[in-house]
Amino acid sequence: MGFMLITVNDKVYELHIAYQKNERLRKSFNHLVEKIFHLSYESWYQAGYWGDKYIPYTLFDKETALANVSVNIMHFEVLGELKRYIQICTVMTAEEHRERGLSRFLMEFVLEQWRDKCDLIYLYADNKALDIYPKFDFKPAKETMFFKAVSKTDNFLAYEKLDMDNPSHSKMLYDYVQNTKPFGKLAMQHTAHLAMFYCLSFLKNDVFYVSDLDAIIVASFNENQALLWDVFSPITLTSTTILAFFNAFEVDYVQFGFTPRDSSSCSSQELVSGYTLFIHGEGSSPFVNNNLRFPQGHLMKKI
What we know:
Elements: E1 2-8, E2 11-17, H1 23-37, H2 42-46, E3 54-61, E4 64-78, E5 81-93, H3 102-114, E6 120-126, E7 138-141, E8 144-149, E9 159-161, H4 167-178, E10 186-189, H5 192-200, E11 207-210, E12 215-222, E13 225-232, H6 239-243, E14 253-256, E15 267-270, E16 275-280, H7 297-300
Parallel strand pairs: 5-6, 13-14
Antiparallel strand pairs: 1-2, 2-3, 3-4, 4-5, 4-10, 6-16, 7-16, 8-14, 8-15, 9-11, 11-12, 12-13
């Protein structure tokens, strides 16, 4: 936990860093998150998954949170190499305190703190705010969406929908995330805390245990399509093997929320959504010469 007094445009603020164990400050932070993003981090914290890899940098007026920029410390296996990435996230300012330089101060402070301590810094920006981040030396990067048709067969895999309010089910998910084999070319490592955030909140109804594969599949459904967010298994699986799970559903196509290792067997196109990936600086980016998609990338924008 860090604390310092900061002056921005002749006004003094309190900067608190990694203060999540302080109940009063955390409550104020959550109040601002709920107001801006309609989310809460409280259940994530109470479940014990908010550790030291998600670091809020927040400006307070006494005990009222006014602006925030958070850091996610992310470890990835990228095309076979281990990398340490930093995700900038939860960028927010209370409406009545905007245009006072608070977010600019926090962004510059965080970048100065982390630019030499990682292999890459990135963030997701709402397409309505694309002009903001180039001011901080962020550049847009293209992602690739991979998808595959479901071959209808009578081979149905046994599965169970997990109840994320059941402690034994959430513990099971955590254990599988901790011991999973990487399923993507760009795979998160040691980030069970993030998977638990997603699966305890807006994906809590989309978690399935497939006993025939010894895998936990996180997937959401929309009419005749499915979005496969992630796969957690102690054994190596192919995309074709995983797609057999979807025979039990009225699904024609499955979109991958990541870059499958056997991506050559998939169809692909440039990913278009309401959010854009930005990479900081002039450093080496794996997105320049490779068709990639950040795993759970469009979920990360929410944290």
